[in-house]
Amino acid sequence: MTPTLVRHYRQADASAPVEPGTRARDWAEIQERMLAPLYEAVYERLEIGAGTRMLSLGCGSGLALLIAAARGAQVTGVDTDRERLALARERLLPEAGADRDRDGLPVLLDGDPSVAVRPEDPPYSLLTVFTPIGCSAGDSEGLKRTLESGVPLVGRGGTVVLTGWGPPERCATSAVLRLATRLADGASAPRAGGWRPARRDDLEEVAFRSGLNPNGSGRVACPFGYADMDSAVRGLLSTRLFDAAVRATDRAQVEKELAEALHPHRRRDGTVWMPNVFRYLVCTTP
Predict the structure, then answer these.
(1) Nearest CA to 195 among 176, 174, 175, 181?
(2) Alpha helix (H) ranges present in the chain?
(3) I need a surface site. Which of 28, 34, 134, 250 has the fewest CB within 10 A?
(4) Distances in Å between the alpha carbon of 215 and those of 153, 162, 164, 204?
């Protein structure tokens, strides 16, 4: 995202009451685009196009699917967040009644990876998990569980792409994410699922434990840029990484402390800018 795009981004009022679906729309309209450079880098490296049959796990509101479909790929997305999926359908299936039985249309499914297979369908050639690990202890275990049900849907010698946060010293947002754990823990002992810095071999460890063969990796700059402080707060809250903090305290307190943590990243023109680096690991199935 360029500074110009940040400055002209449409605003949302962070003080407004949170209605059902609002957080999903905050994700789609504010936060999801921050990872677009990661999607583009992966697709460029893999030469994604008309011959690709892609399954995206945790597809969210569908931006990664939209970019892949624009390159000619046949895409299927799976997620358990129905509100994000509804927004993905608005993006990818604008025609009323569009469904998986119409050839060439994207497929969007609610549930775990098992819902993405039919006996008459060929195996997928590409599996992507664009939810990056490395921002909470235990997220690598969650990724491994996801792969247990997703990898069997990929054909032999197919491609699996895993993603994660880069080194903390190159991710300005890492310091902000620590706030989520501090607020959730309060005076209690740190939670097992609290924030922890990404480790160099996180992705490789999950790949080996999942029976995958790593054969390439890369790093991509994905700065988090927001038009103003309100957009930054809403965008980060939409990631779901602050949910435990909101439950332990209240939304108003989390918003206040999050704004304070973001203050060092506020620029003179009012925008908020945090440089980050993300990793991707390309694997093949045995």
Answers:
(1) 181
(2) 3-7, 22-26, 36-46, 63-70, 82-92, 139-150, 173-185, 202-209, 229-237, 243-248, 251-262
(3) 250
(4) 20, 12, 16, 10
pTM for this model (two decimals): 0.87
Place of tokens 């989390």: 254
Backbone angles phi, psi at 55, to 5 degrees: -120, 125
Q: Are 76 and 103 in contact (CB under 8 A)?
A: no
How far is the C-alpha of 235 from the C-alpha of 66, rounded, in Å?
A: 20
N-terminal to C-terminal alpha carbon distance within the chain: 37
Mean pLDDT of 209-225: 97
Chain Cα centroid distance, residue 25? 14
Quick one: how far is CA 14 from the chain centroid?
21
Dihedral sign, Cα of residue 138, residue 139, residue 140, residue 146 = positive
Q: Which residue has the tokens 């060439």?
A: 104
Position with higher pLDDT, 154 vs 96: 154
Give the Cα-Cα-Cα angle 79, 82, 88 (nearest 5 degrees).
75
Q: What is the DSSP string of 36-98?
A: HHHHHHHHHHHT-STT-EEEEET-TTSHHHHHHHHTT-EEEEEES-HHHHHHHHHHH--STT-
CB 254 within 8 A of CB 37: no
Rounded to the nearest 5 degrees, what angle is found at the Cα of 163, between the Cα atoms of 33 and 155?
A: 110
Residue 30 in contact with residue 9, Cβ under 8 Å? yes
pLDDT tens readout for residues 182-195: 888 864 444 444 55
Record the tokens describing residue 57, joined without a space: 């796990």
User: Which residues neighbour 174 within 8 Å (Cβ) at sequence distance 6 or greater?
Assistant: 135, 165, 168, 197
Q: How far does CA 209 lie from the centroid of its chain?
A: 22
